[in-house]
Structure formats: structure tokens, C-alpha cells
């Protein structure tokens, strides 16, 4: 087989196309941010998860420490059971607070971890005992209206 | 009498359209059936990839860059009203990867490469090269049509990916470099909004389907063109018009399937 400049051009074209796909996957998509390091699983129950989605980030002090793997309805308690995988490098005390927070006004929801002071650490499969559900805007407005009419009486 | 004549004319057109659809479907199946040669003698396909893929590269890259820049500018103006300029990255990337990349790349591909394919095959027919091949017992579908078909089908997703990547770069240049949106939030918002499987892969599937549609229409129009100068020019026009309409129609159907229930 003889090599031609035409082959060279077509080869460069294919390489550039695949490179563009890789850029889209790694730089634009979130493929690179999937955790490849070792993780351990933790659970938490919330009365309302709001707009939390699987692959949502879990942050502590603003640092990404893990991701939500699944959200299911626990029919024993009728609460949302959120399973998350946390990077093995980060250990949290048993009395860590798990809150569902929103980044910015229009941002995505994520789980914020506020560490407590317990000596024992959470192990694989453990559950966060202290959780705070997502703030539902309608509830908030409802409470505000209810309170303001109450105080006028 | 005038009513009868016009009714007869409409009927003739309808029958003609149905006939062409059937012939087109048979042509498509025959192309798939005789595809063996385009893989056994892959050099033929590579040669056609040069003409349909590499030669379309400039227009795809330049158009992608400008589309991204316009998105960056327009998106910034709109998002500024809600004080969420940092969402510019996700706006640019999502609209490019899901919609504009595959669709605009396919439209440009149809008018740049598709029309050239139609004209080339139409001219081969007008100069009786296709008949000559048949006389020499060379199957023109296997020798001429199938390599062009596979070249187009392989090139299209690559071109769409390059269009999207270039568009994201254009959005970055306008949004971050010129206007001054925070670079970190531009990329991080983009990465948290774009999902690889859901957005990037579906975009690739879309462009693959568009590639099949555009190349089949171009090749069929060329193959079916009346062997005159007028016939070839009419076929070229029909290629661009039909491919553009089919791309937009398929886009609606595919989008309805892929992104329903979000």
C-alpha cells in the first residue's frame, strides 16, 4: 500500500473529529468529574429532596467530596433515601449534619456536609442521623404569609 | 375540463412522489446490500471522505466558531437580566451539543458536500460513465454510490463534534475573554449541566442519523437525475431543499424521543 497526501488529510480529519468528541466528553461534559478514586457509601433520609438529582455534588466547606448515586423512596418511613459515594480520602464524624442546599439563586441543588465533633467516624454503609431537607419556596412563602397575618391580629 | 386537468396533474404528482419514495427506499437498501466493496477496498471510501469530510472542514469550523460567539453574546445579554451570567457556559454548551451542532453541521454538510455528490453523480450519468460501468459488468452502486454513502455517514458525526467543540470555544472567547464572565464558573456550570450520555452521545446519534439521511438523498437525487444540464442542476437544488427539510423534521422526531420527560 502506498501512502498518499490524501490519506494524510483524511487521517488528520478523523483524528481531529475524535479529538473534538474527547473534548466534548471531558471538558464540556462531566465525564472527567466522575469519581475514579476509591469511595465509600453513606446514606441519609430526607423528608423532601426538592430538585436533588443523582450525580449531584456533595460538598463540605465548599470542597467537592462525593456524588449522589441514587435517590429512592423508602416505603417504611415514606422518606427519600439518598445514597452517596464519598471519596475515601475524606472521613466525617458520626454527628455530621447533611443539608440540601442550593448554589446561587438559579443553581443546582447539592448536599452540604457540616462536620460535628464526634470522635467516631462514619463507616461504609452508615447513615447520617441529622439531616435537613431542601427548602421549598412555596412552604417558605406560605409560612411567611401565615405569620404576617397572625401578627396583625 | 380545467378542473379535470388540474386534478389529473395533482394525481400525477402524488403518484410520482410515492413512486420516487419507493425507488429511493430500494436504492437505500441496495446501497447497504452492496456496501461490501466500500470496506474491502477502503481506499475508495477514504478518497470520498476527503471530498466530503475534509473539504467541508473549513466551513464547519468557521461557522461553528461564529455560532458559538453569537450564542455567547446573545446568552450573556439575556442571562444578565436575571443576574446569572455564570450560567453562560451551560447555555452555550447545551444548545450546541444537543441542537445546533448536529443540525447546523448537517445543513452545511448538505449544501457543501451533498450538492457536490449529486452534481458529480448526475454528471457521471450525463456523460454515460454509469452506463459504461454497467457494460463492463461493474456494479455502479457498489463502485460509485456505496463508498460515498459510507464516507458521508462516517464524516458527519466527526464534523458535528468539531462544530460543537469550536462553538464552545467561540462562546468562551466572547463570554470569558471579551465580556469577562468568570472563567471558573463558565466551565464548572457547563460541566455540571452537560451529561455525557444524555447530551453528548445523543448529539452524536442525531448527527449519525442526519448523515445517513443527507447522503442517501444526495446520492439518490444524483443517480435519478435526468442526464441533461438542466436535470443535474434541478437535482442539485432538490438535494439541498429536501435534505434541509428532512434534517429539521428528523431533528424534531429525534428530540421528542431523546429529551422527553426532562
UniProtKB/TrEMBL annotation, chain A:
UniProt GO MF annotations: phospholipid binding; phospholipid transporter activity
Domain annotation Mce/MlaD: ranges: 39-116
Keyword Manganese recorded: no
Entry keyword set: Membrane, Transmembrane, Transmembrane helix
Spans traversing the lipid bilayer: 6-26
NCBIfam families: OM_asym_MlaD
Protein name as it appears in the record: Phospholipid ABC transporter-binding protein MlaD
UniProtKB/TrEMBL annotation, chain B:
Keyword Membrane: yes
TM spans (from-to): 17-37, 49-71, 91-111, 156-179, 200-220, 240-259
Keywords: Cell inner membrane, Cell membrane, Membrane, Transmembrane, Transmembrane helix, Transport
Localisation per UniProt entry: Cell inner membrane
Complexes and interactors: The complex is composed of two ATP-binding proteins (MlaF), two transmembrane proteins (MlaE), two cytoplasmic solute-binding proteins (MlaB) and six periplasmic solute-binding proteins (MlaD).
Function field: Part of the ABC transporter complex MlaFEDB, which is involved in a phospholipid transport pathway that maintains lipid asymmetry in the outer membrane by retrograde trafficking of phospholipids from the outer membrane to the inner membrane. Probably responsible for the translocation of the substrate across the membrane.
Similarity comment: family membership: Belongs to the MlaE permease family.
Record-linked NCBIfam families: MlaE family lipid ABC transporter permease subunit (TIGR00056), perm_MlaE_1 (NF033619)
Name of this chain's protein: Intermembrane phospholipid transport system permease protein MlaE
Organism: Sideroxyarcus emersonii
Upper classification of the organism: Bacteria, Pseudomonadati, Pseudomonadota, Betaproteobacteria, Nitrosomonadales
Amino acid at each position: 500500500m502506498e501512502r498518499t497526501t490524501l490519506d494524510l488529510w483524511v487521517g488528520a480529519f478523523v483524528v481531529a473529529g475524535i479529538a473534538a468528541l474527547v473534548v466534548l466528553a471531558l471538558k464540556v461534559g462531566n465525564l472527567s468529574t466522575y469519581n475514579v478514586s476509591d469511595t465509600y457509601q453513606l446514606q441519609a433520609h430526607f423528608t423532601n429532596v426538592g430538585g436533588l438529582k443523582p450525580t449531584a455534588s456533595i460538598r463540605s466547606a465548599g470542597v467537592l467530596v462525593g456524588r449522589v448515586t441514587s435517590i429512592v423512596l423508602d416505603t417504611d418511613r415514606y422518606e427519600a433515601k439518598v445514597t452517596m459515594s464519598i471519596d475515601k480520602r475524606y472521613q466525617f464524624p458520626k454527628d455530621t449534619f447533611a443539608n440540601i442546599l442550593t448554589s446561587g439563586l438559579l443553581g443546582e441543588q447539592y448536599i452540604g456536609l457540616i462536620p460535628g465533633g464526634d470522635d467516631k467516624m462514619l463507616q461504609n454503609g452508615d447513615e447520617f442521623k441529622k439531616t435537613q431537607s431542601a427548602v421549598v419556596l412555596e412552604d417558605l412563602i406560605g409560612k411567611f404569609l401565615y405569620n404576617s397575618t397572625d401578627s396583625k391580629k | 375540463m380545467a378542473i379535470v386537468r388540474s386534478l389529473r396533474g395533482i394525481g400525477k404528482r402524488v403518484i410520482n412522489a410515492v413512486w420516487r419514495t419507493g425507488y429511493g427506499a430500494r436504492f437505500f437498501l441496495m446501497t447497504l446490500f452492496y456496501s461490501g466493496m466500500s470496506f474491502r477496498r477502503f481506499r475508495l471510501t477514504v478518497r470520498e471522505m476527503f471530498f466530503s469530510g475534509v473539504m467541508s472542514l473549513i466551513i464547519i469550523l468557521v461557522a461553528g466558531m461564529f455560532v458559538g460567539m453569537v450564542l455567547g453574546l446573545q446568552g450573556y445579554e439575556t442571562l444578565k437580566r436575571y443576574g446569572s451570567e455564570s450560567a453562560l457556559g451551560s447555555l452555550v454548551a447545551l444548545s450546541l451539543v444537543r441542537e445546533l451542532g448536529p443540525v447546523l453541521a448537517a445543513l452545511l454538510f448538505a449544501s457543501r458536500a451533498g450538492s457536490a455528490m449529486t452534481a458529480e453523480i448526475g454528471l457521471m450519468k450525463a456523460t454515460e460513465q454509469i452506463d459504461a460501468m454497467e457494460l463492463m459488468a461493474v456494479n455502479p452502486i457498489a463502485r460509485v454510490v456505496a463508498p460515498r454513502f459510507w464516507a458521508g455517514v462516517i464524516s458527519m458525526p466527526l464534523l458535528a463534534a468539531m462544530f460543537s467543540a469550536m462553538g464552545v470555544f467561540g462562546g468562551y472567547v466572547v463570554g470569558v475573554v471579551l465580556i469577562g464572565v468568570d472563567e471558573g464558573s463558565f466551565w464548572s456550570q457547563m460541566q455540571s449541566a452537560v451529561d455525557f450520555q444524555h447530551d453528548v452521545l445523543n448529539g452524536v446519534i442525531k448527527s449519525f442519523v442526519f448523515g445517513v439521511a443527507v447522503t442517501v438523498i444526495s446520492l439518490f437525487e444524483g443517480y435519478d437525475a435526468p442526464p441533461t444540464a438542466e436535470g443535474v442542476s434541478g437535482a442539485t437544488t432538490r438535494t439541498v431543499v429536501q435534505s434541509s427539510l428532512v434534517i429539521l423534521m428528523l431533528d424534531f422526531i429525534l428530540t421528542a424521543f431523546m429529551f422527553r420527560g426532562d
